[in-house]
Amino acid sequence: MYTGNTLRYNGMVLLFFMTALCAFAQKQRQWSSGEILHQMKQLNVLGSVLYVAAHPDDENTRLIAYMARVRQYRTGYLAMTRGDGGQNLIGDEQGVELGLIRTQELLAARRVDGGEQFFTRAFDFGYSKRTEEALSFWGKEKVLSDAVWVIRNFQPDIIVARFPEDSRAGHGHHSGSAVIAHEAFFAAADPNRFPEQFQFGVKPWKAKRILWNTFSFGNTNTTSENQMKIEVGDYIPLLGKSIGEISAESRSQHRSQGFGSASSRGTASEYFVHVDGDKAESDPMDGINTRWDRIEGSAGIEKMIDQLIASFDPSRPSASVPSLLQIRKRMQSISNTYWKNQKSKEIDQLLLMCAGIHLEALADKKQVRQGDTLKVSLGINNRSPLSVELLVAELNGQKQTGNGLLKENANWSHQFQLPIPATHPVSQPYWLLNPMSTGYFNVTDQRLIGKAENDPALEITVELKINDGVVRVPVPVRYRFVDPAIGEFFHPVHVVPRSPAEGWMVRTIDYEHIPSLMYEVKPPVVTLPSDLNTTGKRIGYIVGAGDKLPEMIEKMGYEVVELGRDDITAEKLRTFDAVVVGVRAYNVNEWMAEKYAMLMAYVRDGGNMVVQYNTNSFAGPLVRMNIGPKPFMISRGRISEEDADVKFVDPSDPVLNYPNKITNQDFNGWIQERGIYFADSFSSDYRAVLSMHDKGESDLNGSLIVRNEGKGRFIYTGLVFFRELPAGVAGAFRLFANLISNPNLPVNARK
Fold first, then answer.
1. Which residues sit opposite 609 in a β-bridge?
2. Per-residue pLDDT tens over the stretch 258-317
3. Is residue 311 a part of any domain in this protein?
């Protein structure tokens, strides 16, 4: 049994439906009568769909919303990775920190579209061009085992892959996820595959079929009219939204990836290709019984639910409680454990919704140290005329019983004084508890695998008697913060170490759109190479989407001045030995266009300007503004293999010689990749310094281009210095020092 920061195991690994009420959303959830009636209709639907892809933001939110909200199937999304290797548009977090953010963005998306979220242990190591590379790096059998585990627990009627298993997927992780989905489709049903899982209560599970949900985005269109097609643009009156509106809201939760989406209304189609299993003719769920008569011993339940729905009074939802209790009692006699548990949880949720029960457990602080005391206030409000009685509320062994019925619309509260033992586990994400292996998180407890996040560090179990039925509700202890300009926010309470171990620190990540995140981390020790030479003293840094380069440049001995729109003046620019433009600065700062002439004048007058990667993958200001003194394009060209051979186009180029002599050894030890979003279509006015290629591909020479302009120099580079310098890669420091060292400075300026 795991407590504290680890997850509790409740038989099968099912996402508890109550989390819709008690989730770590940052706003309190309130339920309308329309939402209650819509949820009641789901009681008569016994179907399930599992969607599979590689990363956060790969999922088709339109199809997930349609399956979950219109068809009302239990719908899940299994992502191979947590998106650790992506770029970050909103801050400087990278690696596992970015994975923490993107995990919460996925959970926020699922709260919108109605799906559930699962993961494998695979680590997102960045862009991969080959399926074999991805599967080898992840450890194919380990990730396959995780997918099988999720399937055996979730028991989907069908599996839907986002990508094909070939190069049309556009990314080795994408095609790898399709390979895993296909193999897991068979392996989950095979009692000889991963039999060690059966001791934890699962059994072999055979889905009816696996489909590929074809797509059309970018320059790739894999749909065609001879594929199976369904209409998914429904409007849901009870929710007051169309699927296009729900889908856009869900997709827009991926803020770190810049995926804000416009709402759409009207008809929309989704296309499917058969992969394996029984072939469907006109609908993904062809031949699958999703009504109660699929379950032995369920006679009469569907009729009872039909009567519940027909008699629902939107002005008096509480009048439905007696019928809900009767249906729940009837369900206990069926033998199918999976659907009995699932539908019983849905009914318990509806009981709270219909009774208008408000539950909250508020702590007096956002984080508590091991060995300290936390004050927790439990509040309950029965906003109905029903007979509701608190039987018991329990928090870490402390119990509080009620003293009679809860009066209608009257607040009941109790204060807990909770000592936190010095041995209480700290709030560390479960996948970060153990040192990470090369390509995957080292999760050794089978019961934790697949889970999106930890259970709350602290939780009150409340037992209520509603009429003659008893409901047990887990209420997470949260901290409430009231922003005078925005209103209230709710965050999980974190248990932090009394004093972090030597070399470790507690890192907090705070963004408005997700709950606050906190975890223990041992920052890498960045040591500068002993043979590093630098010139100049003062660097101007135009902030982009966020990276850690300013502090790395300071570590090299420079004074770094961060520049915003109003800081960029001709007079101020003259004070800098170099101006460095942060990653994606032209994507996120529309005002860069108005500073173009001033920056080019700085270069012509002897300045040194270094522009890091930007992307042309989103419609935005980049496509409308110039960057360098002569035009060039930014392509999707990239080198994903961090150990790819690097050739020097001209070994005598000043960029490779001043103030450090760059050799091939300087490209040893790079992490994740060489570079992204290379320059393309540049004229002979620019000189390419480096040439490189991934296996089986031709050379790309746009990773680092240079142009001497007037007395100064302009550089564009897609080399991933934003990853390499914080990782302490010696050669990357030496090369970057050359980029920001203006060769026009006198020799005595060398430091």
1. 579, 714
2. 888 889 999 999 999 999 999 999 999 999 999 999 999 999 999 999 999 999 999 999
3. no
What does the alpha-carbon distance between residue 546 and residue 71 come to, in Å, rounded to a whole number? Answer: 41
Task: With a cut of 70, say whether residue 47 has pLDDT above it.
Answer: yes
In this prediction, residue 111 has a pLDDT band, given cuts at 50, 70 and 90, of very high
Domain closes at, from 523, 547, 579: 523
Whole-angstrom distance, CA of residue 558 vs CA of residue 579: 12
Q: Is 306 inside any structural domain?
A: no
pTM confidence score: 0.86
pLDDT, residue 26, reads: 57
Which of 274, 290, 306 is the last residue before a domain boundary?
Answer: 290
Both 26 and 62 in a single domain? no
The helix/strand/coil state of 325 is helix
Same domain? For 714 and 601 the reply is yes
Question: Residue 355 and residue 100: Cα distance in Å, rounded?
Answer: 35
Full DSSP string of 342-362: HHHHHHHHHHHHHHTEEEEEE
Here the tokens at position 575 are: 């004070």
Give the span between the Cα atoms of 186 and 175, in whole angstroms. Answer: 18
CA trace torsion 345, 348, 353, 356 (10° rounding) = -150
Alpha-carbon gap, residue 602 to 608, rounded angstroms:
8
The answer to whether residue 705 is domain-embedded is: yes
C-beta separation of 138 from 180 below 8 A:
no
- Chain centroid to CA 620: 23
pLDDT score at 12: 33
How long, in residues, is the chain?
A: 751
Which structural domain, as residue segments, surrounds residue 53? 47-290
